[in-house]
Design goal:
CATH architecture of one domain: Alpha-Beta Barrel
Shape: elongated
CATH superfamily of one domain: Glycoside hydrolase 38, N terminal domain
CATH topology of one domain: 7-stranded beta/alpha barrel
CATH class of one domain: Alpha Beta
Number of strands: 35
Number of helices: 18
Length: 861
């Protein structure tokens, strides 16, 4: 209990400090709007006339679903199940009341409904469906509120979370995206594919502006011409403040099990006696007059409303139905209707749709930068997604039922990992509390578990397919295009002292090369076999001849190549001509050009490291929440930048030449890093390179962002990228007013120029900026300059709550760069990028036959 007291004191101290400095401008729209108009509304007298346009208020009651934040994710999911039970009972208890004053409930996210349905008895399921049929309960279409990190498979899973027969029975007609202030077009397209064309948003925008004035409605046009009706609504708790200026919730956000706090009861607020309802009516009139003065001219206003216990993950407030019943009995105007999001959105589309403007383009999310708070976990999730893609290759044959079920489970875990909640409400204020650590560990397992299970699933698919094949070493390319490059493996995977391989079809022979590497079964002989990256100095970390590698060319798409291992020693492979490589004074490449290229693959500055930090008493607030203030105030909270010039090389670059590639390695110094090493591997036979950055972040809870820089000779064009497997061009192809400082992407960028095509592919970092780092700009830019300069955002902990405050230690990031003069018509950009980031599967099949029992019981998914 002491820890809870400390948490409360510290949180209140921070809030009071911000209040004294004017810092509460960062609060969400509902609270911010309430406080901006509180003084005016408090003076509203009984004689104030009603609004001239707004005739009806549709109250949509819900629980905002955070899988975490208020409680451990396991508790949150149990709470949502219990809340649905409460809503069902309340709906049935009021089913005979007049329509509009019956209790109504909208399940914002389908995850709680699915959890409930799986454990409900047949009798209880019948109660639920009865409330569905009466129109008192509606289920929104999406499984959860998500970030911009989902791929196409995940978006389809988001809309197939419920059993299909249940989906058809409850027939969702609206989707909700709350808290998160953006949604990729991939999500909208998935909605349309499921027959959903209405989207209700409740953006929470501390420090960030919504794309258009709220409340308002638009038609969002997709690339294929289909449209989604979008209501840009208030944040989910806002409805309360239209009737009552006082927030009943008391901070800090208590756990559900903290019995010193309680959910509100009848009479705590929105009481149903006549005097209380008339007082609420007077307050509402003042709010509506202000709203109409700002331009709202529609007969119906939709107001979302949550409970006031914590506002997030809160139970139904049952007295709300009695409050509405009294309102209607008193015949107060505007009419108050307690309804569901499905009914309210249908009504709004009929009223507002004919005159709503149409917009097109991607809807990038201002909150997406939070994903960079946990680079290792994000990398694990990206690996898992690539492994699932590899396991789904037609190379392995059709799926069986068990395999399909496993993929479904993996995608569900990955969707939950990419859900918008990353930790406790006090995860920044108290990063090492047991509460914070417990919530994030539950989050992290949703990345590491799919990574491990996907690796095993892919291994099963490969073994099941190849176990009956002839003896040999098989290189399997599950990528959509042919693959060339080094195949690497631990040398101890070889049973013999093999030195070469021969192609089983052509007979051509290639050499096997040996590199130094790690071996946990051997102790180091001397310091030369230890790595300066790892101070524990226990096992052999850089011993000779630990890694075996060989080169393969053009393994067919979704194809196999069978090689035969041999102890025969052969000469080196024939060396390919080296490209033209320019270096700086320390030997680091500044440009590489292959025959046929009029411009280099990259410009000087490749692999530079940039760290951005903030200054101020409350630096997170200073940087994020005064971003829209006047220049003088921004200067007061000016940013301190450790730029690339600080990342000086500790020593000159070391270059290692081999027949197929040249590898440049350089150590870096930076005040925020214990050490850093960058490695650039340049292909000789094709215009391609791979940059690997390994860095050790020293522990710090202070807000900062790390970038790795990639300048390309493509100044005259805008890049193309994608999110959720839907391509878009930043700036040009996005909704007005949406985030242009950084983008959540699938992991690739393409520049199409008259001189050829430049490609950038990230395996681990799904966030990018262009030009200068956003925190270095005086304000969010309408058109960032220098779009040819890609900045991979590899770490960010600027967000002020429910994200990871201090990821530190070793982090590794890999990036592929390539150039092609032309792309064949049949080659898609996404397939090219996916192939660059892929790794073939390598299996050694001995001459001995595998037992069918083992294949069936162990290797079959």
């Amino acid at each position: 209990m002491h820890s809870l007291k400390v948490r409360g004191l510290r949180t209140h101290f921070v809030l009071w400090a911000l209040l004294l400095s004017g810092g509460l401008r960062w609060l969400d729209d509902s609270l911010d709007t309430a406080r901006r108009t509180l003084a005016a509304n408090a003076a509203v007298a009984p004689q104030v006339t009603g609004p001239s346009a707004i005739q009806h208020i549709d109250l949509v009651h819900l629980s905002h679903t955070d899988v975490g934040y208020t409680d451990h994710p396991i508790v949150c999911r149990e709470l949502q199940v219990r809340y649905l039970d409460i809503a069902i009972d309340a709906a049935l208890a009021t089913q005979n009341r007049p329509e509009g004053s019956r209790f109504c409930w909208t399940a914002e996210s389908a995850i709680g409904v699915n959890d409930w349905w799986r454990s409900a008895t047949p009798e209880r399921r019948a109660d639920f469906l009865k409330a569905i049929d009466s129109g008192q309960i509606a289920v929104a279409a999406m499984a959860m509120n998500n970030t911009a990190a989902l791929n196409g498979r995940q978006w389809q899973k988001m809309l197939h979370w419920l059993p299909e027969d249940l989906w058809q029975r409850v027939h969702p007609s609206v989707a909700m995206q709350d808290d998160v202030n953006g949604i990729p077009r991939a999500g909208a397209i998935a909605l349309l594919d499921r027959g959903i064309h209405r989207l209700l948003t409740g953006m929470n925008d501390p420090g960030f502006l919504p794309p258009l004035r709220r409340p308002s409605a638009i038609w969002w046009k997709m690339p294929d011409g289909r449209r989604v009706f979008v209501y840009l609504g208030y944040c989910y708790p806002s409805g309360h403040f239209f009737f009552d200026p006082v927030e009943w919730r008391r901070g800090p956000s208590p756990h559900a099990g903290e019995i010193r706090y309680r959910p509100p009861r009848a009479g705590d607020f929105l009481a149903s006696d006549e005097a209380s309802v008339r007082k609420a009516h007077r307050h509402l009139l003042g709010r509506l007059r202000t709203l109409e003065a700002e331009g709202y001219r529609h007969p119906t206003l939709l107001l979302p409303i949550t409970n006031q216990w914590r506002m997030d993950n809160d139970p139904p407030f049952l007295p709300l139905a009695d409050f509405v019943a009294t309102w209607r009995r008193l015949d107060l105007k505007p009419t108050l209707r307690l309804t569901t999001a499905a009914v309210a959105m249908k009504r709004l589309e009929e009223e507002m749709g004919p005159e709503s403007a149409e917009y097109a383009g991607e809807w990038p999310d201002w909150w997406s930068f939070g994903t960079a708070c946990a680079p290792r976990e994000v990398a694990a999730s990206r690996i898992a997604k690539r492994l699932i893609d590899a396991a789904d290759s037609p190379l392995w044959g059709p799926w069986n039922a068990n395999g399909r079920r496993t993929v479904d489970e993996l995608l569900r875990d990955l969707c939950l990992f990419d859900e918008h909640t990353w930790g406790a409400s006090d995860s920044i204020a108290l990063p090492y509390s047991l509460d914070t650590q417990g919530e994030f560990n539950e989050k992290a397992i949703l990345a590491f578990r799919p990574m491990a299970r996907a690796e095993w699933l892919l291994g099963q698919r490969v073994r099941s397919r190849l176990a009956h094949e002839a003896e040999g070493l098989y290189v399997a390319n599950s990528a959509p295009l042919p693959w060339s490059g080094w195949i690497r493996m631990q040398r101890n995977a070889l049973r013999e002292d093999d030195h070469s391989l021969s192609d089983a079809q052509s007979g051509s022979r290639t050499k096997m090369y040996l590199d130094s590497g790690f071996n946990s079964y051997r102790l180091p002989k001397d310091s030369r076999e230890l790595s300066r990256e790892n101070p524990d100095a226990t096992f052999l970390e850089s011993g000779p001849d630990q890694i075996a590698k060989f080169w393969v060319e053009q393994v067919p798409r979704h194809g196999l190549r069978r090689l035969k291992l041999s102890t025969t020693v052969v000469a080196d492979d024939r060396a390919a001509p080296a490209p033209n490589i320019a270096t700086d004074a320390q030997g680091w490449p500044t440009a590489v050009t292959w025959p046929g290229m009029s411009k280099p693959l990259f410009l000087p500055g490749l692999g530079d490291f940039v760290a951005v930090r903030a200054k101020g008493v409350a630096p997170r607030m200073a940087t994020r929440f005064w971003a829209f203030a006047e220049p003088a105030k921004r200067e007061k909270f000016r940013r301190e930048v450790f730029a690339a010039s600080n990342a000086v090389a500790q020593e000159g670059s070391k270059a290692v030449d081999n027949p197929h590639t040249i590898v440049f390695t350089q150590s870096l110094l930076h005040p925020r890093l214990k050490w850093a090493v960058r490695e650039l591997e340049v292909w000789k036979g094709e215009p391609r390179a791979k940059l690997t950055m390994r860095l050790f972040r020293t522990s710090s809870e202070a807000p900062e962002t790390f970038y790795i820089v990639f300048p390309f000779p493509c100044e005259s064009v805008l890049p193309e990228t994608s999110c959720g497997d839907v391509p878009f061009v930043p700036v040009r192809d996005q909704m007005p007013g949406t985030c242009r400082d950084y983008y959540g992407i699938d992991g690739w960028i393409h520049y199409a120029t008259p001189e050829g095509h430049w490609f950038w592919v990230s395996r681990d970092a799904p966030l990018v900026s262009f030009g200068d780092p956003p925190q270095m700009r005086p304000a969010p830019s309408d058109h960032p300059q220098g779009m040819h300069r890609v900045l991979a955002m590899v770490f960010d902990n600027f967000w002020f709550t429910n994200f990871v405050a201090d990821s530190h230690g070793l982090m590794e990031f890999q990036f592929d760069l390539a150039w092609r003069e032309k792309l064949p018509p049949s080659v898609g950009v996404a397939d090219f990028a996916r192939t660059l980031a892929s790794e073939p599967q390598v299996m050694i099949n001995p001459g001995l036959k595998e037992d069918p029992i083992v294949i069936k019981r162990l290797y079959t998914p």
